[in-house]
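Supplementary Text 2. Reproducibility record for the structural model of the 182-residue chain.

All settings were left at their defaults, and a single model was retained for analysis rather than an ensemble. We include the record here because the model underlies the residue-level annotations in Supplementary Table 4.
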Amino acid sequence: MADEDNELLDEDEDEELNWPAIIIAAVIVLGLIGGAIWYFLIREVPENELEKAPEYVPPETLAEESIYLDMPDMIISPADGKGRFYLIVKFDVAMNDRGRVFDEMILKPWKYAQALNFVIDVYSDYTREELRSPKVKEITRQSILDEWNHIIGWEYDAELEALGQLEPPPLKALYYENYVLQ
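Retained model, structure tokens:
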């Protein structure tokens, strides 16, 4: 039995390397590296590959978007919260017309309070389960955005939109910075 163990443990086999395979792999790797260097650095580029990319032209209707980041964290009790559960929500506001938003919303504190009160009213109408739904999150965000644009004084008009004369709303979008339901 001792002879069989010695036959299985051949110490010389562990140290033997497959030199032909190593040399072939090294030649292939060096060939790939050399080919890449030639293709990207040395070869002459044909004229049809040198065509210039068209210059970027921004669309005419692109309005500059500024973001207002100083909205407060709002703590709201859901419809079934009973004082034990709450939602913490905070928005970043993207604006198309920063001057109009600041004139109408920030410099007139009663409109700012009206806007924040609307947020409380919207979220307190939903239960905890509904507030977990992405669909309800999107519906509430869109309804808040529409109401805030209304508070600022912008109204949607389908006839003006059909004619292409509808100016963009002062508030472009609301982004959730914080949305925690506990």
